[in-house]
Task: inverse folding
């Protein structure tokens, strides 16, 4: 086993809009409060106003300490979260790189919990649990927990602390060996979230790392917890169905790029064949036995969400043909 020492761990935080100003500050403060040395690397995605504002704030309010420092960079790659993360990774020094989103806050022991898993040589990357921070202080009554991925959430039972090995982890709560990350060129800069359009760039990265390092494993660490903001404008059926559609489209693009057959979508197949039927049965029992109107709403959302995701996967997107499709299939540039 190669023990990962107590050196500072860079935490890359991509950001793109001043509308998230308060959330960005909270994300940085959560990194500065970690129990092990770290550095926050803020990467601003093609927004000069936000870049200058953050640099001014950093100089005034975020002095370097013995356990934490903050730097602010401009995205030097393609517009979008993937290019921003790669820019931050380029500046990172050390055997590990962590990623946190600008609308998420980390538990003080987040980095400690993630980094501890790398004492196992087979672990190439790790991720943790993502819990919601609902703006209304409670989740909508119509929301089925199995669809937590719509909001970037982890559907894991409270009290479940066992580390498990998974196909992929969420990039808003991720740590990866820097050599493994760079060996595959990092995130695919032409594939990822741009503005409000999301794609599964984290799944793509995890699969490419695993393909490059066949004995490598991704660990899900329940003790590594972050909270992810779910503002009121996202806790709506419109946003829910739009994300379901985008997920279907993104997974179809992923399959076309990687070409690994069914193994690329094995988690999605388990979700459709096991999780969705179980959820439908649970909510149907609530409707039939208890006349639970909230269960009826969740039952309807389960059906619509599943149908919308499948439609996004099945319906060809004209904009994804021709040059754009060829662009997505290009080799990933080095980081």
Result:
């Amino acid at each position: 086993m190669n023990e990962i020492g107590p050196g500072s761990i860079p935490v890359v935080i991509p950001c793109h809009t001043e509308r998230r100003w308060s959330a960005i500050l909270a994300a940085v403060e959560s990194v500065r409060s970690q129990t092990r040395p770290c550095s926050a690397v803020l990467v601003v995605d093609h927004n000069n106003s936000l870049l200058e504002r953050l640099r001014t704030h950093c100089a005034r309010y975020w002095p370097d300490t013995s356990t934490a420092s903050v730097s602010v960079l401009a995205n030097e790659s393609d517009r979008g979260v993937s290019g921003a993360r790669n820019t931050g990774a380029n500046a990172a020094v050390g055997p590990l790189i962590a990623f946190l989103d600008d609308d998420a806050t980390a538990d003080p022991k987040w980095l400690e919990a993630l980094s501890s898993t790398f004492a196992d040589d087979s672990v190439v990357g790790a991720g943790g649990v993502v819990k919601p921070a609902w703006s209304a202080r409670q989740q909508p009554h119509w929301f089925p927990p199995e669809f937590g991925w719509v909001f970037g959430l982890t559907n894991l039972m409270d009290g479940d602390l066992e580390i498990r090995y998974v196909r992929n982890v969420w990039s808003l709560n991720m740590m990866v060996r820097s050599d493994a990350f760079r060996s595959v060129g990092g995130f695919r800069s032409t594939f990822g979230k741009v503005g409000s359009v999301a794609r599964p760039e984290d799944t793509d990265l995890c699969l490419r790392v695993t393909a490059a390092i066949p004995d490598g494993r991704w660990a899900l660490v329940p003790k590594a917890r972050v909270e992810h903001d779910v503002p009121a404008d996202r806790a709506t059926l419109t946003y829910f169905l739009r994300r379901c559609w985008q997920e279907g489209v993104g997974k179809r693009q992923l399959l076309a790029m990687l070409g690994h057959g069914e193994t690329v979508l094995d988690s999605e197949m388990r979700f459709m064949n096991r999780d969705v039927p179980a959820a439908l049965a649970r909510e149907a029992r609530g409707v039939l036995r208890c006349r639970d109107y909230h269960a009826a709403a969740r039952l309807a959302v389960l059906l619509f969400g599943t149908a919308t995701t499948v439609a996004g996967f099945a319906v060809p997107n004209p904009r994804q043909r021709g040059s754009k499709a060829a662009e997505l299939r290009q080799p990933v540039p080095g980081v």
